[in-house]
Specification:
mainly alpha, 5 helices
Length: 124
């Protein structure tokens, strides 16, 4: 019976990226609502989480976009944006999160420790 192969990489940013995209699309309908502040917290925190995964995966292209999303959606220091510009930015940020979630890859710990040429301790 063949053994299952281990993946060479993981996509740790996929789940937070998709969650942030869903929050951004849902939040686009609630921009003028007081509940939008909660969406801003969620998006800002998830942007920082995906940013850390992008750093670990050496996907440096996404770092400035994710940092900008974390700053613009920060609910503590509000950047005054209104109307169609704000709604357009919601969908652009959702596209950035989806692309980053799909493209950011981090080497799997199992693949790096048990790959060819690695020395693993032999059982006695």
């Amino acid at each position: 019976m063949p053994t299952p192969q281990k993946a060479a990489f993981l996509r740790p940013a996929l789940a937070p990226g998709l969650l942030a995209a869903v929050a951004l699309v849902a939040g686009a309908t609630l921009i003028h609502s007081p509940a939008f502040v909660g969406f801003r917290y969620v998006v800002s925190i998830l942007a920082l989480i995906v940013l850390v995964f992008a750093w670990r995966g050496r996907a440096y292209l996404y770092l400035p976009f994710l940092a900008a999303i974390a700053v613009v959606w920060n609910p503590v220091w509000v950047i005054p944006l209104t109307g169609q510009l704000w709604q357009g930015l919601q969908f652009i940020a959702a596209a950035v999160f989806i692309a980053a979630g799909i493209r950011i890859k981090v080497p799997s710990p199992e693949a790096t420790s048990t790959g060819p040429g690695s020395r693993s301790p032999q059982p006695r």
